[in-house]
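[09:14] KT: can someone run the structure on this one? pasting the chain below
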Amino acid sequence: MAYSPVTRTVVNTDRKFVFSFNHISDGSNGGVTTIDASSLGTNKLGQTCTYLDIEKVRCNISTTAQNDSALVAFDADTDDTALLLNGDTDYDFSSFGGITNPRSTGVTGDIKITIPVQTANDSTFIMLECIKRYEALS
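[09:31] RB: done, structure tokens below
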């Protein structure tokens, strides 16, 4: 069976983007889901979102093997790891401005969620609350 997570935009305003991701493994495939920052529309000034910073994360990841963590990364020539997620937890990074995209070489502004091949019926729920940025990437 193909990798087929259920994704949903929960909030998409000029400043904030909230995204939910659900996946139940059939044991055969992992995959990558990309949040395309530039596809999130323009703000009131007509500017296109260029990248996202991660402010809060909620997750409930139930895996048989502990190394089946979900990887959340900022897309670049060599992706920048933002978080490795496993278990049932909430993270709030808002007190210091969030996990900022380091805008490394080849940055696209996108966020990638990578799910490894998991055991059948392993489940992954992730909700990312992001701050939309409009500055140039380079």
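[09:33] KT: thanks! The chain has one domain: 6-133.
[09:34] RB: yep, looked fine to me
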